[in-house]
Amino acid sequence: MFADRHRWLALLGPVVLFLVVWHVAVVLSRSLIFPTPWQVAAGLADLARQGLLVKHIVASLFRVTCGYVLAAALAIAVGMLIGWFPAAHALLNPMVQGLRPISPIAWIPLAILWFGVGDLSPIFLIFLSSFFPMVVGTAAGVMTIDRKYLRAARNFEFSGLRLFRSVVLPAAFPQIVTGMRIGLGVAWLVVVAAEMIAVNSGLGYLIIDSRNAGNRYDLVVAGMVVIGVIGFLLDTLMRGLERLDEVRWRYET
Amino acid sequence: MPPKIDVRGVSKVVRTRAGLVPVLDDISFSVADGEFVAVIGPSGCGKSTLLGVLAGFERPDAGMVRVDGEPVDEPRRTAIFIFQQPSLFPWLDLRGNLLLALNGASAEARQQLAAPYIALVGLDGFAHAFPHQLSGGMLQRAELARALMVKPEILYMDEPFGSLDALTRLRMRAELLRILSRERHTVLFVTHDVEEALHLADRVLVLSPRPARIQAVIEVTLPRPRVLSSPELLALKASLLRELGVDERPVPDP
Predict the structure, then answer these.
(1) pLDDT tens column, A42-96
(2) Taking CB atoms and an 8 Å limit, are A155 and B100 in contact across chains?
(3) In 10 A of CB B242, how many CB atoms?
C-alpha cells in the first residue's frame, strides 16, 4: 500500500512541478498567445464537448492502424526472407538500407502525387515509416539465431514451413517485437506530420488548423498533449508484448 | 550381422584463417549395435569433427560413414546429437520441447509420451519449467529426454557433461548408465576425461594429436556397475594415460 502510494507520488510530483513552472512562466512573460495549463485544459474540454476530440483521435488512430498493420505484415515476411536466404539478403538488403535513412517526411510530395489528398497519403507515409524498423528487426532476429538451435532442428528433421513456424519464427520473435515497438513509435510521430498536409481530420490537422484559424494556441498545445498521452499508451501496450513468455526468454540468463 | 556404424577411411580438411588444416586422417572403425564407444584424445585433435561427420552435420573429404549399411548424408532423427551446450528451445517449456521433437506424430500420441521420459531422466515436476529455470545438470537431463523421445537408434554425445561440476558429472554418468540399461542405444561418446571413458564405455578409441588417427583401441570388459577405485580400472586408466602421453609415475628426485 505504502509503496504504491509512493510510486504515484513519484510519478505525479514532477508533472505537478512542470505545470506550476509552466503557469508561472506564462504569467511572468505576460504572453498574449502562449496558453497557461488551465487554458489548455479548458480548450481540451471544449474540443471534447464538440465531439472534435474523439473525431480527430479516431481519424489518426485509424490511419496509423491501417499503415502499421500493412507494414507489419509485409515487413515480417520480407525480414524473414532477408534473414534466412542469402540471395534475398543480397538483393533486398541494399535497397532497405538505402531507403531507410530517408525521412518519411521527404516522401510527402510523392505521396500526394501518387495517392492524392485523403486517407491514403498518410497511410502510405505511416506504412513507409514503420516498415523499415520492422524489416531490420526481423532480419536481424533471424540472422542472429543461435546456430545450436538450428542444428537441433536439423537433427530432428524440421524442414520447410515447419522449420519456419516452429523454430525460426519463435527464435526471432523477441527481436521482431522490438522492431514492432520502434515501428509503432515512428508511425505515431509521422501521422501528425502527414495530417498537417494531406487531410482535414486527425490530431496533426487539429494542431495546424487551430494555428491557422485564429492562433488558437490553447488548442495547439491541447493537441500536443493528446498526442503525447496516446503515444505513451501505445508504447505501454507494446511494452506489454515484451512481457510475454514468448519474448522474455531472450532476456533471461 | 553388419555393424551398426561403419566408418571407412574418413579424412577431413578444415579451412581456417591459417589455411587448410588436416583434421581427420584415414579413420576407420565400426561400432556394433548397442555398443557404447568412447572417443578420447588430446584437446583440439578433431574428436568433435569426427562426431559431426558421423552424425551427418559435416561431410568428409574422403571416406564414408554408413549406418546399417546406408551412407550418411544428412542428420537423421534416428541418430540424435547431444553436445555440451544444451540446445533445448528456450521459448518452450520442457514439455513443449519434448513434444516438438516428436515432429509429425499425432496429438494423442504426443500427449502420452512426454511424461514417462520426463520421469525417466528424473525431472518430475519440471514439465512446465523453461530452460533458463533449469540448472546445468537438469538441462543435460532434459536434453537427453528430448533425444530419447524420438526413440533414436544412436546417440552421439560430444562432451555432454563437460560444463558440469565434478559432482554433478559423476551423478550424470550413473544416470546415463541407468537410462541406457532401460533403453538400449548405440552410443558414441566424445570426452577428454579418461575416467569418464572407462566408467561408461565398452570400448575406448584413443585418437592421436591432429590430424587425428586411431592410435589405440582399449576394450573395457569390466562388469557394471564399475568401481572407479578397483585395481583393474586403475590399471586400465594408467595404460590409457600412457597412451595419451601422460605418465602418472612420480618424477624421480634428481
Answers:
(1) 999 999 999 999 999 999 999 999 999 999 999 999 999 999 999 999 999 999 9
(2) no
(3) 13
What are the grid coordinates assigned to B218, written together? 582399449
Distance of alpha carbon A58 from alpha carbon A197, whole angstroms: 18
Q: Is the dihedral of CA B218, B222, B225, B229 positive or negative?
A: negative
List A residues 162-191 in contact with B (Cβ-Cβ < 8 A): 162, 166-167, 170-171, 173
Which positions in chain A touch B81 (Cβ < 8 Å)? 151, 155
- What is the rounded distance in angstroms from the CA atom of residue B123 to the CA atom of residue B138? 7
- ipTM computed for the complex: 0.88
For residue B87 the three cell numbers come to 540446445
Quick check: B49 and B12 in contact, CB under 8 A?
yes
Please tell me the predicted confidence (pLDDT) of residue B105: 64
User: 3-class DSSP state for residue A221?
Assistant: helix
Tell me, what's the pLDDT at A154? 94
- Contacts A–B by Cβ distance under 8 A: 55
CA-to-CA dists, residue B154 to A43, A171, B73, B80, B181, angstroms: 75, 28, 15, 6, 14
Give yes or no for B103 touching A (CB within 8 A): yes
Q: Any residues with CB less than 8 A from the CB of A94 and at least 6 apart, and which? A: none
Alpha-carbon distance of A105 to A103, in angstroms, equals 5
Residues in chain B predicted with pLDDT less than 50, given as ranges, are none
Pull the grid cell for residue A248: 522474455
Dist CA B220 CA B177 (whole Å): 15
**Which residues touch A237 (CB under 8 Å, ≥6 apart)?**
none
Residues in chain A: 253
Q: How far apart are the first and last CA of chain A?
A: 31
Q: What's the CA gap between B167 and B158, in Å, rounded? A: 19
Amino acid identity for residue A102 in this structure = I
Q: What are residue B6's DSSP bridge partners?
A: B30, B66
Lowest mean pLDDT among A2-11, A21-30, A169-178: A2-11
Report, in angstroms and rounded to the nearest whole number, the Rg of chain A calculated over CA atoms. 22
pLDDT for res B111:
67
Q: Which of B91, B132, B144 to mutate to test the interface with A (most CBs of A within 10 A)?
A: B91
According to DSSP H, which parts of B85-202 are helical? 94-101, 107-120, 136-149, 166-182, 194-200
